[in-house]
Amino acid sequence: MTRKLGLLLAGALAAVGLIALAAAVILTRTHGLNTRERPGPIERWVAARARQMALPQGARDRPNPVPDSPEALADARAHWADHCATCHANDGSGNIDMGKRLYPPVPDMRLDTTQHLTDGELFFIIENGIRLTGMPGWGGGSAKTSVHAEEDSWKLVRFIRHLPRLTPEEEREMQSLNPKSPDELKEEQEEKDFLNGGDTDEQPKHHHH
Q1: Is the pLDDT of residue 209 over 50?
Q2: Counting beta carbons within 10 angstroms of the beta carbon of residue 43, is it exposed (0 to 12), middle (13 to 18) or buried (19 or more)?
Q3: Torsion sign across C-alpha atoms 175, 181, 185, 186
Q4: What is the pLDDT of residue 113?
Q5: Residue 175 contacts by C-beta under 8 Å, 6 or more apart in sequence?
Q6: Closest CA to 153 of 142, 141, 133, 137
Q7: Summary mean pLDDT of the chain
Q8: What is the distance between the alpha carbons of residues 127 and 139, in angstroms, rounded to a whole number?
Q9: Residue 46, C-beta contacts closer than 8 angstroms, at least 6 positions apart
Q10: Cα 206 to Cα 187: distance, rounded to the nearest angstrom
Q11: Alpha-carbon distance 47 to 43, whole Å?
C-alpha cells in the first residue's frame, strides 16, 4: 500500500510538472520571453521550490555568530546603503528602478517570504547568490579579493531582520551613504562651491529626483 501511494504521489508530481511545462510553453509562445511582465503564479511557485532545493540542509541550520547589537546594525546599515540599496532600496522594499526592472523583480525583504528564512539561509544566499535571478554571490575568494568578509554577511543578516522596523531617521542617514551618480556629484560640488563663496554668477542647479 505504501509503494502504491508513493507511485500515485510520483505520478501526481509528474502531472503537475507537465502542466507547468505546458503552461510555460504556451505563455512563451504567446508573450515571448518578456522581462517587463511580472512572473505568473506557476513561475513563482517553481522559482520558490528551486530556491528551497538549492539551499543545503547544513546552511539552514547555521546560527548567526554575530551578536545583535547597535554597532553591528550600524555597520550593516552603512554596508547596505553603499552596496545593496541600488537593487533592494534602503528600506528593503525593492521599490527602486533597478530592482523593479530585474527579472524576477527584487522581492520586498520586509515580508514573510524573506523573514521566514533562517539566518543560515539568508547568509547562504548573500554568499552564494540565487541562480536565474539578478542576485549574485558576494562571498568566496581570498580575504583580499572577496567583496566582504563572512562577518559582514552575518551583519547583513541582522540588518535584514531589522528592515521591518527601520526608522525614518535610519533611512535618512542611509540616503547620505548611497552611491552618487556623476551628475549628483557635480551638483553637490557646485553647491559647495557656491556656499563657499565661489562664482556667484552660476546658481547651483536643483533637480527633482
Answers
A1: no
A2: middle
A3: negative
A4: 92
A5: 81, 90
A6: 137
A7: 80
A8: 4
A9: 20
A10: 8
A11: 6
Q: Would you put residue 89 in left (φ > 0), alpha (ψ -120 to 50) or beta?
A: left
Is the pLDDT at 201 greater than 90, yes or no? Answer: no
**Per the structure block, which three cell numbers stand in for 165?**
522596523
Q: Which cell is 163 given?
A: 528592515
Q: What is the mean pLDDT of residues 47-73?
A: 84
- The residue-averaged pLDDT of 100-110 equals 90
pLDDT of residue 10 exceeding 90: no
Residues 157, 160, 161: CA angle, nearest 5 degrees: 90
Cβ burial 122-161 (10 Å sphere, 16+ → b, else e): bbbbbbbbbeebebeebbeeeeeeeebeeebbbbbbbbbb
Query: What's the pLDDT band for 73 if we cut at 50, 70, 90?
Result: very high
pTM > 0.90: no
